[in-house]
Design brief:
Spore Coat Polysaccharide Biosynthesis Protein SpsA, Chain A, three-stranded mixed beta sheet, binds 2-acetamido-2-deoxy-beta-D-glucopyranose, nine-stranded mixed beta sheet, single chain, 11 helices
Length: 446
Amino acid sequence: MGKCCKCNSRLLCMCLLPCMMTGHLLVYIMVSIFVTISYTPPKITIHYIAPGISANSTALASYPLGPFWNLRLEDSALWNQLQHAWDRQHNPILRGNTTGIIRNPKAKVLSEIEDECLSDCMSQCSVPRIHGLDSFPKQMRAFIRSMHCREYPLLINQPGMCRRNSSSYDLDSPLLVMAIKSQVGNFENRQAIRETWGRSGLVNGELNKKGGLVRTVFLLGRQDSSTGPHPDLKNLLELENQKYGDILQWDFRDTFFNLTLKDLLFWHWLQQYCHTAIFVFKGDDDVFVRTGALLDYLNKQWEEHDLWRAYTNETDMNLFVGDVINNAMPNREPSTKYYIPGSFYKGMYPPYAGGGGVVYSGSLAFRLKKVSERVRLFPIDDVYLGMCLHRLGLSPSHHPGFLTFDLPEADRGKPCAYKSVLLVHRRSPNEMLTIWKRLQKMPGHC
Ligand SMILES: *[C@@H]1O[C@H](CO)[C@@H](O)[C@H](O)[C@H]1NC(C)=O
Ligand SMILES: *[C@@H]1O[C@H](CO)[C@@H](O)[C@H](O)[C@H]1NC(C)=O
Ligand SMILES: *[C@@H]1O[C@H](CO)[C@@H](O)[C@H](O)[C@H]1NC(C)=O
Ligand SMILES: *[C@@H]1O[C@H](CO)[C@@H](O)[C@H](O)[C@H]1NC(C)=O
Ligand SMILES: *[C@@H]1O[C@H](CO)[C@@H](O)[C@H](O)[C@H]1NC(C)=O
């Protein structure tokens, strides 16, 4: 009986086992096929579209990141081409071999111009022939023609800004340097800033009164007949500078697409004349900043960094905060100020801090300056900073106190609404004075 049972089960085994295995295989195949079919690629949600475009517009460019295996360099955009050439040039493995890289005729001509002009940046290089350049809009053309120039001489300098010992205080390294992008004609904005949130000197914090030394400089280019019809304000500017000594002016046309130059040249200046600055605020002259609250925030960051430094030997502080914009696409609407044609730049923008103002650490400013030498100029300054940060392997941190898009209309006049605000865009000189006065006595009940 036992013997028969044994042979029975052996028969069963020999019969059933292959069946079961084939069954499993079939199930496995079916499941794999099902999973493959039902898979959809992850959708990238676009949280934000670069300013100037309405979110509902159907005129948006198609999603710019094509499949990588189709992206032939020859078809790529001008900026991407030029950046690619630099990347190869600076690649330690390929270093030294720049021949045979640029195949796009547009880019090729540009690189020839670059060679011609590098030695002589300042003289208006007469550009003989640029194929395809005519297809770019006017301000883009002006940008492309001068995008290899990064050095412009200072017309008005403040070499003593950070050496100056203010009255009895023996402090010379500012906690915060405020670098404010302005234009020659904006006298009223500058004066309102000096009288309110941009006052140079020792400034108290709001909570613990610690505060710190603040130095304010205004970053200007040239605003004269070359940037359109402008009255001659040169003498007035000189007078202003004699009185306040806080103007930095460089010899380039002060246009929207040249704003990136102000960042680069300011870093240069900072390194030379104010390299001990701990933090930098960079902003526009039409924002309102609660400087006291900002100093409280920065003091806290600095203390935390000190603790951190005691544990690790990390001396660099990588702080970069603002109103961060992720997944932004270039603006493809030709009628707007921010328009970037697809033939100039392809791809998404890296995360960047938009509009109004940002705060970063002094040591990061110098790292940004260094890395910017390997990033082609980009006409939109905020995006350019994002690109440089990206190259450093960093991304900007979002701080809810930076309000690029302002408070709700109904709250703008209420002091309490400003309680958690560090920066708000945009305010006229009159509004700056009004808000400043009201905020001096922030009601206790807020
Ligand atoms: C965009 O669409 C939303 C809803 O679809 C609508 O409420 C809003 O008014 C639209 N904005 C513009 C600028 O058309
Ligand atoms: C440089 O690159 C070109 C084209 O890619 C190649 O023909 C040439 O041999 C390279 N030269 C050196 C020195 O590697
Ligand atoms: C700056 O400080 C030094 C000593 O700390 C002093 O000798 C000098 O007079 C000061 N200069 C000004 C302009 O206050
Ligand atoms: C930027 O400034 C330079 C020097 O003044 C000028 O040649 C160039 O056209 C300007 N770029 C733009 C876009 O205005
Ligand atoms: C920090 O650096 C000092 C001197 O360079 C060294 O003696 C110390 O061990 C370092 N500490 C750490 C935590 O790496």
